[in-house]
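Why should sequence recovery work at all? Because a backbone constrains its sequence more than one might expect. Tight turns favour small or flexible residues, buried strands favour hydrophobic ones, and helices have their own preferences. The token representation captures these environments compactly. In the example below, the structure is given first.
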């Protein structure tokens, strides 16, 4: 997550840098938070705040490629945050979110049986 607070995507619709002194380790990764409140929310239900599809770029996945998403570029669809690799990829996802997400989930399922 490159130090970004995963809770802020849904609560503030923004990529907010987390503090270095507010950290939780989950699934072997350090997660940073902008506030103690956000850390508590995450710790109560980390799956609800971790980016979907493993943080990979949804647009790249929909095209059959496994590329990391950039935590500064994201889209919230429903209650889930998805990362993309660039502003251009973000615009593409916003133009057709359901179709791109459906294709990305199909590729994800093949990569993670």
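From this structural description, the recovered sequence reads:
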């Amino acid at each position: 997550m490159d130090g970004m607070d995963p809770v802020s995507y849904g609560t503030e619709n923004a990529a907010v840098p987390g503090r270095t002194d507010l950290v939780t380790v989950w699934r072997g990764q350090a997660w940073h938070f902008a506030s103690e409140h956000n850390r508590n929310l995450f710790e109560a239900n980390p799956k609800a705040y971790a980016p979907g599809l493993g943080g990979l770029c949804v647009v790249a996945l929909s095209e059959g490629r496994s590329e990391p998403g950039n935590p500064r570029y994201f889209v919230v669809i429903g209650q889930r945050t998805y990362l993309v690799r660039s502003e251009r990829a973000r615009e593409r996802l916003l133009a057709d979110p359901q179709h791109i997400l459906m294709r990305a989930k199909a590729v994800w399922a093949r990569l993670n049986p």
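A few observations help interpret the result. The first helix runs from residue 6 to 12.
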